[in-house]
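Friendly challenge for the regulars: who can give me the structure tokens for this chain first? No prize, just bragging rights.
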Amino acid sequence: MANSLLAIRMTLQGKGELLDQVEKRRSAIMRELIQAATEIGFKVAGDAKRNLDARPIAPSTDTRMPPRIRTHRLSRAITSFVESAPAALRSIVGVLGVVAYGRIQERGGMTPAHEIRPRYKKMLRWASRSMQGPLLLQKSGKVSNRNKGMFVFAKLVKHPGSRIPGRPYLGPAVESNVGFIEARWRAAIERGLNG
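First reply, four minutes later:
Bragging rights claimed.
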């Protein structure tokens, strides 16, 4: 998750009396800012989950579309929390480490070549050519679809690796909420100063 952080830096500048007022109301301002950071994190995380749910049912060739959902593990792993330090306050939205494919779905990348072996059975099984079967050329010159509806069995598959296009869901959630984030920070500072 550390590689997927988005930081918004805010600097408070002003004349001496404003900075004095900020110093006097530091605890009230921090309380408001922590509340704002929490709300921002929840809103961005919720929008990221909705971005995942807005995917097409069938596989899409449009690489800008979010990944397809089968188990909702990625959506459930999106979380937000607030990190507070003396000089910084961060609202962090990201994917828990239990879902290893969150980063590659967001940014894209390649999986290495690997072997696929059966876990629970003696053989792997899959439908041949999406249950259509390979087209075979017969001696007579006709094309036959003889294996239609057949399954392929194997003890080992040597997968060449995959190129996975980036299908962002976190980035668009932040981009669509920039106005909300700025307004919420501004309101928190004003509430903290006016107490």
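Confidence is low (pLDDT under 50) at residues 1-7, 131-137. Residues 112-161 form one domain. Your move, everyone else.
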